C-alpha cells in the first residue's frame, strides 16, 4: 500500500499526480489497470454480505472498479468535493446528474447557452417525462430571478458556455436557486477544475466531460459527476448502478495518466489562447473576438472574479458568413477541423453546422451563434506557428474579397 499523503493541504499539481493512488500487493509505480468485469469472493457468505452492503468488496465493474475508484478519488480531491462518480461520457454525466434527481412534475431552470446535446435533454427529453423546462439568458440575472421566483427542482448551467464563452454569475444564481429549493448543477468543462471552483461558488453538483482537457490527447471518452457524499451515494449511485452508464477501467486509467500533466497543459494553452485572441482582434477579417480575460469581453469583470485564467477556447466571427467560415477552416494547414476540444492539438469547428446544428437557427441567433462564428480550441503547438497558420487562412479571405 502507498504511504499516506501528508495531512496538510496539497496543491492542485500534486493532487493531479498523487491524489487517490492505491497500490496492489505488487507495489507498482503506475496506477494499476484492473481490466476485469467481475470479482470473486472468498465464500458464499462474503458474496451475500457484499450484496447486502454489510461487507466492502468489489462486485462488478459496472458498480465499481479499483482503477475507476482511484480516478474518482483523485478528481474529488482536486475539485474539493466529498464524492465523485465516473461515467462513460460527459453527456452520460449530465444525463445521470439530471435524471437521478428529477421526478415527474418537477421544474428545471436552465441557461439557454448549453451544449447542443444538453440543450436537447432539457428542451426535448425532460418534457417527455412530465418535467417542466424553463430557459433563461444566463447573463441576465433578472431572468434568473423571475424564473426562480417559484419553486424549482434543479438549475443547470455551463459557464463559460459552449461556444460563445458567456459567463453566469454563479454565486448570485446559486443563492436564488437555494431559495427556490433547487439543486445547482454546473458544467465546468471549459474552465476545468484549475480555473474555476463551482462548489466554492455555490454549486451543489459539478459535471465534466473528461474527454476534453482531463484526457487532453484525444484518446478516450469519459465523464464525471461530483458533489456531496450523501447525494452521490443515495441519489446518484443507485441510478448509475441500475442504468449502467459506467466508464471502462481502461478509459479511467488513460484519464488518470492524462491528469498528471493537466497542471502543465492548461496554463500553457491559456497563454497561447490569450495571445491568439489578441492577434485575431487586430485582423480586419474578424468582426468579433470573445475571450473571457480580454477587456472587451462583455463579462470581463465577472470572468476575472470567478476564474483564475481566461481558458483555452477562443471564439470569433468572420465577415462573410458560412462561406467565409468554411473557406477559412479549409485553408488551415496546422489546425485541424474537429468538434472536440481541450486537446493537445489545436482544433477548429463551425458550431452552426456541427455542435449546435440541431438547436435550430432561431435558437442559435438568440445565443449569438452566427453563420460566421468559429470556435478555436487552442492546443500545445508553438503559439507563433498557430498564429502564422491563422494569418495565412485570413490572408486568403482578404485576397478573395479583393
Task: Describe, in plain words, how this protein is organized in 3D.
The protein is α/β, with parallel strands linked by helices and 402 residues long. It folds into two domains: 12-259, 3-Layer(aba) Sandwich (Aspartate Aminotransferase, domain 2); 264-401, Aspartate Aminotransferase, domain 1, CATH 3.90.1150.10. Helices cover 42% and strands 14% of the residues. It has 15 helices and twelve strands. A seven-stranded mixed beta sheet has the order 1-7-6-5-4-2-3, sandwiched between helices. Strands 8-9-12-11-10 form a five-stranded mixed beta sheet. Helix 11 runs parallel beside helix 15 and helix 13 packs across helix 15. The radius of gyration is 22 Å and the shape is globular. The mean pLDDT is 96.
Write a brief caption for the model.
Helix 3 (66-79) packs parallel to helix 10 (249-259), helix 4 (90-101) crosses helix 9 and helix 13 packs across helix 15 (383-401).
Amino acid at each position: 500500500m502507498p504511504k499516506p499523503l501528508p495531512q496538510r493541504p496539497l496543491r492542485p499539481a500534486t493532487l493531479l499526480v498523487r491524489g487517490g493512488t492505491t497500490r496492489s500487493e505488487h507495489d507498482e509505480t503506475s496506477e494499476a489497470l484492473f481490466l476485469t468485469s467481475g470479482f470473486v469472493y472468498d465464500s458464499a457468505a462474503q458474496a451475500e454480505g457484499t450484496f447486502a452492503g454489510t461487507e466492502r468488496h468489489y462486485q462488478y465493474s459496472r458498480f465499481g472498479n479499483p482503477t475507476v475508484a482511484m480516478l474518482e478519488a483523485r478528481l474529488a480531491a482536486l475539485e474539493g468535493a466529498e464524492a465523485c462518480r465516473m461515467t462513460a461520457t460527459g453527456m452520460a454525466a449530465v444525463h445521470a446528474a439530471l435524471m437521478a434527481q428529477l421526478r415527474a412534475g418537477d421544474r428545471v431552470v436552465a441557461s439557454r447557452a448549453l451544449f447542443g446535446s444538453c440543450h436537447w435533454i432539457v428542451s426535448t427529453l425532460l418534457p417527455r417525462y412530465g418535467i417542466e423546462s424553463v430557459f433563461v439568458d444566463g447573463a441576465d440575472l433578472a431572468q434568473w430571478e423571475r424564473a426562480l421566483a417559484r419553486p424549482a427542482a434543479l438549475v443547470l448551467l455551463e459557464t463559460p458556455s459552449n461556444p460563445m464563452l458567456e459567463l453566469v454569475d454563479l454565486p448570485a444564481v446559486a443563492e436564488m436557486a437555494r431559495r427556490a429549493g433547487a439543486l445547482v448543477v454546473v458544467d465546468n468543462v471549459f474552465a476545468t477544475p484549475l480555473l474555476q471552483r463551482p462548489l466554492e461558488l455555490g454549486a451543489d453538483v459539478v459535471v465534466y466531460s473528461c474527454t476534453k482537457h482531463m484526457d487532453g490527447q484525444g484518446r478516450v471518452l469519459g465523464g464525471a459527476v461530483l458533489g456531496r457524499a450523501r447525494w452521490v451515494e443515495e441519489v446518484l449511485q443507485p441510478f448509475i448502478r441500475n442504468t449502467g452508464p459506467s466508464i471502462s477501467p481502461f478509459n479511467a486509467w488513460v484519464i488518470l495518466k492524462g491528469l498528471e500533466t493537466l497542471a502543465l497543459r492548461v496554463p500553457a494553452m491559456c497563454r497561447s489562447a490569450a495571445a491568439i485572441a489578441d492577434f485575431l482582434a487586430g485582423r480586419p477579417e474578424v468582426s468579433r473576438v470573445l475571450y473571457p480575460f480580454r477587456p472587451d469581453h462583455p463579462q470581463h469583470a465577472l470572468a476575472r472574479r470567478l476564474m483564475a485564467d481566461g481558458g483555452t477556447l477562443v471564439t470569433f466571427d468572420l465577415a462573410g458568413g458560412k462561406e467565409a467560415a468554411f473557406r477559412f477552416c479549409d485553408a488551415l494547414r496546422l489546425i485541424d477541423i474537429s468538434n472536440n476540444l481541450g486537446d493537445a492539438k489545436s482544433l477548429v469547428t463551425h458550431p452552426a453546422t456541427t455542435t449546435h446544428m440541431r438547436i435550430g437557427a432561431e435558437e442559435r441567433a438568440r445565443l449569438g451563434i452566427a453563420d460566421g462564428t468559429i470556435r478555436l480550441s487552442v492546443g500545445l503547438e508553438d503559439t507563433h506557428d498557430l498564429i502564422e497558420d491563422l494569418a495565412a487562412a485570413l490572408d486568403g479571405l482578404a485576397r478573395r474579397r479583393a
